[in-house]
Write a structure and sequence with these properties.
alpha/beta, binds iron/sulfur cluster, single chain
Length: 225
């Protein structure tokens, strides 16, 4: 069984698939405690609801989101499995495999502290590297780097310019620009977009693109969108 926080259809807001309609499966529970975490309901519970669902039930729920346009016949269906931390749940690879077999483009967003090799081939892995201001710097599993390629993405959520400087240095030390797309995404409440943009223009870190969380620009902190 999977422990699910929520399943919904929205737009992809945080990756190179930015702006595309995307369904989200948010799994419950996380092994980290980032100070700026914006999904505490999927981490700690509280006002959040966690529901036990089988893999086929989750897949049926995702399929149901697309029923208005012909269900399985719709092309280009994108689904992201996120959390919380999805790799904590042993059945996440089975969920990915099931969705891939139905023709979905499957993304998994993971916090970078766990081994991504458990995911089946074909999954686009969006792997976070936690910066110092998250309070979880140092948890990144560096062995993951060797498993990543052009169809994966690395994401650094930066809460300050010093985080961005640290992240750029990390990218250089590990030659990440040659490996996969790299995204720096600001914590909107802590680092103004223009401050990071000005730093990006001045510094031009190799292979890095800046992204803002599109869903927050549109809907703020509303859940389920
Ligand atoms: S890894 Fe993600 S879900 Fe877990 S505490 Fe950090 S931001 Fe929150």
């Amino acid at each position: 069984m999977l422990t699910v926080s929520e399943i919904f259809l929205s737009v992809q807001g945080e990756s190179t698939r930015w702006g595309r309609p995307c369904s989200f499966v948010r799994l419950f529970g996380c092994n980290l405690r980032c100070v700026w975490c914006d999904t505490k309901y999927a981490r700690d519970g509280g006002d959040g609801v966690a529901t036990a669902m089988s893999v086929p039930d989750v897949i049926a729920a995702v399929e149901g989101l697309y029923s208005g346009k012909g269900g399985q016949k719709e092309e280009g269906r994108l689904v992201e499995i996120t959390g919380g931390e999805p790799l904590l749940q042993p059945e996440t690879p089975d969920l990915c495999a099931g969705l891939l077999s139905l023709g979905y483009e499957v993304m998994v967003e993971t916090n970078g502290s766990l081994d991504i090799c458990v995911l089946p081939p074909g999954v686009r892995r969006v792997v976070d590297v936690k910066c110092p201001d998250s309070g979880e710097g140092g948890v990144f599993l560096t062995d993951n780097i060797g498993l990543m390629g052009p169809s994966d993405e690395l994401k650094f959520v930066v809460a300050s310019i010093s985080d961005a400087i640290w992240a750029a240095d990390f990218c250089d030390r590990h030659a990440l620009a040659a490996r996969c797309p790299i995204i720096f995404s600001p914590v909107a409440s802590l680092l103004p977009y223009d401050a990071l943009a000005e730093w990006m223009v001045k510094t031009r870190p190799t292979g890095v693109r800046m992204a803002v969380q599109l869903h927050k620009v549109i809907w703020g902190d509303r859940r389920g969108v």
